[in-house]
Amino acid sequence: MKTLVIVSHPNYKDSIINKRFVDELNKYKEKYTVHIIDEEYKDAVIDIKKEQELIENHDNLILQFPFYFVNCPYLMKKWLDEVITPEWAINEHGTGEMENRKVAIGVSIGGKKEEYGKDKTYLYIVEELLRPFESTCSYIHANYRGFYPFYAAEYEPTKEDIDKASKEYIKFIDSI
Ligand SMILES: Cc1cc2nc3c(=O)[nH]c(=O)nc-3n(C[C@H](O)[C@H](O)[C@H](O)COP(=O)(O)O)c2cc1C
Fold first, then answer.
1. Which domains does the chain have, with CATH numbers?
2. From the first residue on, what is the mean pLDDT of each consecutive set of 10 residues in the chain (176 residues)?
3. From the CB of 157, is ligand 1 less than 6 Å away?
4. Which of 51, 117, 124, 133 could be disulfide-bonded to 128 (CB atoms 3.0-4.6 Å)?
5. From ligand 1's centre to the CA of 170, what distance in Å?
């Protein structure tokens, strides 16, 4: 079955990294469905049933977003809060829709890797900052498979850097 990639970017039209990642994913439409929720829900009113059915009709789930205040942007959080309801995701018989589903993250990060960690600007490494997602996956019995980071997005990455990362991102998704 195909992989579903949920993309949230409040300013997608000006995005460089996330847009390039989406372009790469769209080269393989037989493998990935890319769903840009900010484009779909300009009024931020999410069709919960439609989103749940999308997940049900796919295998793995990727959450892709730019790091905003060391978190996902608001619409991704709203999407998680409203779509991933415990009664749909898990049930006592172990047949909930998120049970054992592989989940991973693709995140673009403005800061450099060296800015993340103890005594650095952001105090913690990105793996630590993404723990709420890892922990949520545990709670809903999903299988958290880690993340692919693109660092230093705000330090004028070259086209070659971004092209290379797009291909690594695809490899990461295929390897989870
Ligand atoms: C409101 C806002 C908050 C941000 N917070 C962070 C942050 O906490 N850490 C960081 O490294 N970059 C931060 N950034 C930079 C974005 O992560 C970066 O611009 C984005 O990942 C680039 O991806 P794009 O080319 O797809 O827009 C922030 C940007 C904005 C607009």
1. 3-175 (3.40.50.360)
2. 96 97 98 98 98 98 98 98 95 88 98 98 98 97 98 98 98 98
3. no
4. 124
5. 21
